Amino acid sequence: MASPKSLLEAENNWKTAMGLSFPGERVVIRGKDLFTDLKDMRWMELLLFGITGRYFSDEEIKLFEGIWVLCTSYPDPRVWNNRVASLAGTARSTATLALSGANALSEAELYGRKPDIRAYEFLVRCEKILKLEQLNLEEIVKQELNAHRAIPGYGRPIVNKDERINPLIDLLHKLNFENGIYLDLAFNIESALLTGRWRMKMNIAAPIAAIAADRGLSRNEFYNYMCLCFTGGMLPCFQDASDKMEGTFLPISCSKISYEGKNLRSW
Asked: Are 88 and 101 in contact (CB under 8 A)?
């Protein structure tokens, strides 16, 4: 918690090496001029530079962009966060509010950012345990299941197969990123689950967390990189609902509601 001294020192005095704008002149990001040093960057490259302060190869940027395209751009209004974007559209709200609400809803327990982070943490923890030779992989899997009844990044609530895995593997092969300490570990964990009695297949959270760890992203950097990734699916849902008659996105008639409260009352 901030002390009175630290608050007084920070009053009207925010020290940062992250960036600054000079209206009418230039913009600086992490010590680099946006209009000269960084002007040729792709958007994903600039995003990752802002988050990490690091430069990535062209192949790495293609991989990070590919994760967003292949793994998260579902324009399906039935998906829980996309539904918020569609509801905003049918209510004639703005795209900014639609994305804000839908992205806020992406902090889910079973889908979205929380499973991503738990998968990252588990892979890093698992690798440390294996390096210290405290347990073998099957013992780690058993302990995790006994403690939490699930392993983040494995299994799926609707179906056991994740249709995004194979396209991601194809992209990894194309860019020569098919191997890595954490990526290999992610697939070895799946093998341990499939050869055991659990029959749990990997979902997309495990390989993308492994890719991020192998490419040197920290836990928080991985989260920050992923936090806008669903917008490619949200905006089409918002646009579609905005183009249709107002209020017609998935209405429910009163007769479809199972009501067990008091009878009709006068107000």
From this structure: yes
Q: Are 82 and 182 contained in the same domain?
A: no
User: Whats the size of the chain, residue-wise?
Assistant: 267
Structure tokens at 49: 């530079």
Structure tokens at 200: 């749990």
Q: Which residue has the tokens 């609400």?
A: 101
**CA dist., res. 116 & res. 127, Å (int):** 17
| Half-sphere exposure in the Cβ direction for 91 (13 Å, CA) | 11
Q: Which residue has the tokens 């943490």?
A: 121
- Domain holding 86, by residue range, is 73-106+230-242
Give the whole-angstrom CA distance, residue 145 versus residue 138. 11
CATH of the domain at 220: 1.10.230
Q: Is the model more confident about 71 or about 127?
A: 127
Q: What is the pLDDT of residue 42?
A: 96
Give the mean pLDDT of 21-36. 96
Residue 202 backbone phi and psi in degrees, to 5: -70, 140
Do 192 and 124 have their domain in common?
A: yes
Handedness of CA 190, 217, 112, 117 (dihedral sign): positive
Report the alpha-carbon distance of residue 195 to residue 182 in Å, rounded.
20
Percent of the chain with pLDDT over 90: 77
Mean pLDDT, range 33-41, rounded to an integer: 96
Q: How many domains does the chain have?
A: 2
The number of angstroms, rounded, from the C-alpha of 54 to the middle of its chain's C-alpha atoms is: 20
pLDDT on residue 124: 97
Sheet of 32-33: strands edge to edge? 19-22, 26-29, 32-33
